# Entry
Amino acid sequence: MEWLRSRSAYLQAAPLSLIFLLFFVLPIAMVVVVSFFDYQAYQILIPDFVLFNYQDVFSSEVTYRTYFITFRFCLMVWAITLVLGFAIAYFLAFHIRTITMQIVLFLLCTIPFWTSIVIRMIAWIPLLGRNGLVNNALVASGFTDAPVEWLLYSEFAVVIGYVHLYTLFMIVPIFNSMMRIDRSLLEAATDAGASGWQTTWNVIVPLCKPGIAIGSIFVVAMVMGDFVTVNVLGGGQVASVGKAIAAELSYLQFPPAAANSMVLLGVVILLIMLLMRFADIRKEL
Amino acid sequence: MFAANICFMGEDIVGSGAGIELVGLTKRYGAVEAVKEIDVKIPAGTYCCLLGPSGCGKTTTLRMIAGHEGVSDGDIIIGGENVSELEPARRGTAMMFQSYALFPHLNCLDNVAFSLKMRGVSKSERRASALEYLALVEMEQHAQRLPSQLSGGQQQRVALARALVTKPDVLLLDEPLSALDPFLRIRMREELKRLQSELGISFIHVTHSQEEAMALADLVVVMNDGRIEQAAAPRDVFERPASVFVARFIGGHNVMSGAVVGEDPASAVAIRADRVRLARAGRAAGDESGETHDITARIAAVEYLGLWAKLRLDAPELEDFTVALPDSQFFDQGFTVGESVTASWRSSDLHRLGADR
# Structure
């Protein structure tokens, strides 16, 4: 009995720790180990401790170019989802008066998530394709003589796909932050003579910082690691770090893919640490 | 406690003060009328308390004056100008919110400087000005702290400075003392009163505590169910309550049906709890000059409160009848619960009440 009491805290923490160990720490440890393995065309994994997988990653010019492209995606998608997410969250939090309506509109935002990511991405093809709805409309209305080529299988299409997928991840934490703002603060700002924009800029945005930070972490982490969207909407024309890793995996080059993944993991962790400096997200949890 | 530096740098720190008039002011939420055509005149430089139970419309009235609630009907006139349709910041009012509503991400100095920043005052100028107002409420040493690092009383001082920095003609206070502990509440009450008399502007203070209203106000506006029951000086409200509601709400009065004193049973009369004399049943209650009424009752409860004792009487014709006896008299007589007593009073002490509006 005494034994049980003194260790009950450990016992209570055990199930989660076990799951964490089994599904998170163990796989990552395996990737770390494999990233130092040797490989050949006819032998996929040769246990060893070599550094050339990492040397290849850092010495290849392709790596820097794909990272540049991926960062650029990140920045564009982050900026667009931030503006969209803030605006939608603002509308939901401050203009919708009843909770019921808020819930209904919130569910509306989640509709894209009722189907799988691949189907959601493929749904853009008939819309943006060479003979898709948008092009047909553009040609029919006389804006262009020939169908616009850059709508699909382009960086434009990939950004649209990302925005479609990830705006909700910006809306939710910002909305959460906004709902915590005491409404009397807004009245106090009005009382002090602040206009709507001044209130937004001087009161709402600073108080939403934690939500913005959390949403940014979601979006940045997901864009950095994505390869499905780039594959489907980039159509082989667009590169990204995730896609490069996926390509290596498809050639069964596991050790270089593992090394590439570890580098990506390091970069994402650095980005998240940077974002955490802007806001204390612990307040929000 | 507030420093005497009410005038610094030779400038007036607040507006000149202006009278307020509410004319037929009405607020409807759908079919519900929260405030029903109230009329009241508050002279410049008055400490006015809006007093009433929760849901009586006092906060709605204050918020309409502040401009945070639209007016359904009627007018708000401040300093001779109809401000009913003006933005809150253009009315010459400043509001102090119930929970203070300090901006949690700004330190005290920037909280106070907020309205100046909105007006585009330069950083150094607005900080210097804000510091002066913080000094007025003796908070200048906490200028760099965040609101969460302050006690309730300190937060209130900062909120007060933030409201005053706009140089208002009228300061609106929404239950400003309700979040404080009882000791601090009484101290802040004194400070509010002193500040108001030194600044010379009108304060409109919403409260549900009759004690607070009596202690602070030059003008008490008692509200019930969206209407004004009585608007008068505290002494008038206490000595001559206009209605049964006011007599009950202000306390210290026993409200009885007119039938008890041989008048119209539909009317109501009140007798102050300290004007009732008590004697053991069958004995005279002493001084018998003038016309008196007496009534036989049983002592239902006794509370000794130090300066005086509170005895609750039970009789078929009475409801909730209290007698306040000075402590010496209470101990001389040695009344106990369950005893039969005769309560008497001079008919000249009776106060006739109007019906509730």
